[in-house]
């Protein structure tokens, strides 16, 4: 709990951050030897390996700490979790921050490859570099206390989203767009482990259900914002979606002070 939990989430974010760094590069290299079908074959093989590996993981939660209620009754816990205002505000911060990130993920290939004409390999390196920004941000966040890291990240993403909007709307050179997205994801790295830690600390009484809410909400919003960036001019729609998400995350942070 406390700062130790934040450090744990930061470490987990650093490890997880290797995937978006390496996978686009690996996919780009794979396309040199196969077509798009080969990508899906590779994903299927990875899925099979993960499915088999799942059987070798043992439950780590002590027997005495597990909920001993019928399965259907566990869903009643969600009502208690959702009524915790501070918990839900941390969830909102995490959700809207990841919404901005998903908007970037959904739009980046169209922006960098279709408009700026980057090759698949160049785009892979570009995407990987921006993935590295999250890793760096997560590592730096562990050096600060939770509130300061969260505040830094939220101010940073809000101003970075304005920078992104300027670069996209005025169609600056590709290096400017890359730098803008790098800064956005750098400060995103400050928020994700910190908001996760603070949310789980608020919902620690029902840790499993709290973790489920924490996992569901950001990806649900990701499914909503991803098609939105394709409406109209992708440069304008991406700018708007990212700015609105970062603004709502910041407003949620302001709401924390009122609850406190």
TrEMBL record:
Keywords: Cell membrane, Membrane, Transmembrane, Transmembrane helix. InterPro entries: MFS, MFS_dom, MFS_Efflux_Transporters, MFS_trans_sf. Residues 1-260 form the Major facilitator superfamily (MFS) profile domain. GO terms for cellular component: plasma membrane. It is found in: Cell membrane. The chain crosses the membrane at residues 9-30, 36-57, 87-112, 118-137, 149-168, 174-194, 206-228, 234-256. It holds the Pfam family MFS_1. It is a multi-pass membrane protein. GO terms for molecular function: transmembrane transporter activity. This is MFS transporter.
